[in-house]
């Protein structure tokens, strides 16, 4: 009995879901130095699925079919290597993949391999941008073009980044095996930062004229979940970051309108908020408070939590501002400073917030100009429109330009 679901839809879906898992397990046998071999076998497996399923239909258990094919392809590869070694062994280099017939794809091995691969890819020797690019390619199965879109840059630039990052990966002695506590402690901060940046690439996307790249958010959540499933990586920071992702993801549907334009928080249709995701966020936030530490992820998760509470809550914005005051001391960034100023306006009013914003000296930021336009909207229409026009000049996002143009039109309508 064959599965009736079309292979045309199923293969790309399974590729996104299983490719990274398959590659991670295969790298236990080939090592990071020969990661391309593992990737080639995984890619060939999905290519065979696409061809075979088109003729014979989708098998009853397509995932099991994929792993069986991958296992057989790997065994064939090692068989050929073994024959080659017996014939001209003296010409082989010592860094050839080691022959192994014990190839398994059970849940525990897949889980351990994925976790190890996450820690391998998040290599401190690579820049943050290169880590994200490598994570998108190896851990999420993204192509060069997709990664270029996520970074709003040329494909050739991404190819060079990936090449440099992969070279560092090959030079690393990190082993894809069950991780020790010291190995985890030495890299966990880098891993969490990479997942945080990956999520933000999706949540505040400027690529392909999209405000949101849901697939990036989804992949970041998936990888973060892997960390919570292992006792050594299931830390308060890990749970705080996952809580933040859940709270933020819960409002994705409401953040844009049908035209893809941004919808201000206070204008969002709260019926579109994902209540189960908010509940999951609450669950992970509670788990995150079991320790004594307070990280930036705890503070940002707390801010995101308060955003999901009732707008009638009198203490809402006061609590959000207090959390921003703590966050800016832990890790200053222009975006954090601007977001804090927005919260400041909710507590002390727009006039005082304008004074706070001017102290930041961020006049070359489109976010600053947009915030100033918002703050001046009820005080001085002319200045508000001027700031919105400046924001349009500074942003590269066509979606954002349309959103700002609509705001200007509304202000001009009110003045007439």
How big is the Rg?
25 Å
Provide a count of the helices. 18
Kindly report how far apart the N and C termini lie: 69 Å
Low-confidence stretches: none
Approximate helicity band: 55-70%
Percent of residues in beta strands:
under 5%
How would the global form be characterised?
Answer: elongated
Structural class: mainly alpha
Largest sheet: none
Order of helices and strands: HHHHHHHHHHHHHHHHHH
**Mean of residue pLDDT values:** 85
Number of strands: 0
Describe this structure in words.
With 416 residues, this protein is mainly α. It contains 18 helices and no strands. The chain is elongated. The N and C termini lie far apart (69 Å). The mean pLDDT is 85.
Short overview:
With 416 residues, the chain is mainly alpha-helical. It contains 18 helices and no strands.
Chart the SSEs and their pairings:
Layout: H1 7-30, H2 35-56, H3 62-88, H4 107-121, H5 128-139, H6 144-151, H7 155-171, H8 181-203, H9 214-228, H10 236-249, H11 275-288, H12 296-307, H13 316-330, H14 334-348, H15 350-358, H16 366-376, H17 381-394, H18 398-415
Helix pairs in contact: 1-2, 1-3, 1-4, 2-3, 4-5, 5-7, 5-8, 6-7, 8-9, 8-10, 9-10, 10-11, 10-12, 11-12, 12-13, 13-14, 14-15, 14-16, 15-16, 16-17, 17-18
């Amino acid at each position: 009995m064959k599965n009736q679901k079309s292979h045309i839809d199923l293969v790309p879906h399974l590729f996104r879901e299983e490719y990274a898992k398959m590659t991670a397990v295969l790298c236990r046998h080939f090592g990071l130095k020969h990661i391309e071999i593992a990737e080639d076998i995984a890619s060939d497996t999905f290519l065979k699925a696409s061809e075979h399923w088109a003729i014979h239909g989708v098998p009853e258990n397509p995932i099991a079919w994929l792993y069986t094919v991958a296992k057989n392809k790997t065994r064939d590869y090692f068989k050929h290597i073994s024959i080659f070694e017996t014939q001209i062994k003296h010409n082989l280099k010592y860094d050839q993949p080691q022959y192994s017939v014990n190839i398994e794809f059970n849940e525990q091995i897949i889980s351990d391999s994925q976790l190890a691969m996450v820690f391998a890819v998040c290599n401190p020797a690579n820049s943050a941008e290169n880590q994200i690019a490598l994570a998108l390619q190896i851990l999420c199965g993204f192509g060069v073009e997709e990664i270029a879109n996520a970074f709003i840059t040329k494909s050739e630039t991404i190819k060079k980044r990936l090449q440099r990052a992969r070279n560092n990966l090959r030079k690393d002695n990190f082993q894809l095996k069950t991780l020790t506590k010291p190995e985890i402690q030495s890299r966990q901060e880098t891993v969490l930062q990479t997942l945080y940046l990956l999520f933000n690439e999706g949540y505040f996307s400027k690529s392909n004229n999209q405000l949101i790249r849901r697939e990036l958010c989804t992949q970041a959540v998936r990888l973060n979940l892997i960390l919570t499933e292992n006792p050594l990586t299931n830390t308060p920071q890990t749970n705080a970051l996952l809580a933040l992702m859940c709270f933020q993801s819960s409002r994705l549907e409401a953040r844009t309108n049908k035209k893809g334009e941004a919808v201000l928080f206070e204008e969002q249709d709260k019926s579109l908020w994902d209540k189960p995701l908010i509940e999951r966020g609450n669950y992970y936030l509670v788990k995150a408070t079991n320790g004594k530490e307070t990280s930036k992820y705890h503070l940002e998760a707390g801010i995101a939590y308060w955003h999901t509470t009732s707008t009638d809550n009198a203490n809402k914005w006061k609590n959000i501002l207090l959390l921003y005051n703590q966050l800016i001391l832990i890790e200053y960034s222009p975006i954090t400073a601007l977001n804090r100023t927005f919260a400041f306006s909710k507590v002390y009013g727009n006039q005082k917030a304008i004074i706070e914003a001017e102290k930041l000296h961020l006049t070359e930021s489109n976010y600053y100009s947009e915030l100033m336009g918002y703050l001046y909207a009820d005080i001085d229409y002319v200045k508000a429109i001027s700031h919105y026009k400046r924001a349009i000049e500074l942003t590269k996002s066509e979606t954002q330009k349309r959103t700002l143009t609509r705001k200007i039109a509304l202000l001009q309508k009110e003045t007439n």
